[in-house]
Amino acid sequence: EAGVVQSPRYKIIEKKQPVAFWCNPISGHNTLYWYRQNLGQGPELLIRYENEEAVDDSQLPKDRFSAERLKGVDSTLKIQPAELGDSAVYLCASSSLWTPGETQYFGPGTRLLVL
Amino acid sequence: TQLLEQSPQFLSIQEGENLTVYCNSSSVFSSLQWYRQEPGEGPVLLVTVVTGGEVKKLKRLTFQFGDARKDSSLHITAAQPGDTGLYLCAGVGGGTSYGKLTFGQGTILTVHP
User: Is A63 helix (H, G, I), strand (E, B) or coil?
Assistant: First the structure.
């Protein structure tokens, strides 16, 4: 069974440019998460989806970040415009159910460098 | 805001040595998870501990959850080069943070042959 797929794996852009990341969760997983992992830190949750509904986006910087999961399967995270401080690894994860302690399966991440 | 502090941040040891990584918080968590992350990959779940005082073993790895469910430790016996990686603890929140994962900053372990 395929794991969580993310693309691109790497992205280098200049500040003020837009960028988008794509995630395809494990088949049948209803819950999808986007995390940001800064260098030397653990992941921080940006947004959680239950099917197509964003049920926790309290940590998403809404002035420049947006996300969608239109059909409740794959998802896109966008930054517009990007800032130098957005350089980080963006991780997508999925789980079959949203229950505390439920195993989240992480993708390999997209490493973003903003110049 | 719930915070998790991991120590040490870096650990460099020789093959065969034992080590312990600590994860501490002032907050109570409903459960705590340990992950291992290799370069260029996402974190992979190793274990979930739920009950205060619980001890779980995974081959040479021993995980313990504090009695008050605020802290945890990971002990590796006879470390091997294949154990090299970033070890992350994550608290599973309760109350207003129900189900939310709060990660520590991680411990980078390097095991030299």
Answer: coil
Asked if B41 lies within 8 A of A108 by C-beta distance, the reply is: yes
User: Which residues of B fall within a CB distance of 8 Å from A107?
Assistant: 42
Using DSSP, how many helices (H) and how many strands (E) does chain B show? 0, 11
Structure tokens at B84: 């090299």
Burial B15-35 (b: 16+ CB within 10 A, else e): eeeebebbbbbebebbbbbbb
Summarised one tens digit per residue, pLDDT across range A52-78 is: 999 889 899 999 999 999 888 999 999
A106 in B contact zone (CB under 8 Å): yes
A101·B48 Cβ contact <8 A: yes
| Minimum distance, in Å, between the CA of residue B90 and any CA atom of chain A | 9
What does the alpha-carbon distance between residue B76 and residue A28 come to, in Å, rounded to a whole number?
35
Compute the nearest-CA separation of A80 from chain B (Å). 25
pLDDT digits (tens, 9 = 90+) for B10-55: 999 999 999 999 999 988 888 899 999 999 999 999 999 998 999 9
Specify whether the CB–CB gap between B87 and B104 falls below 8 A.
no
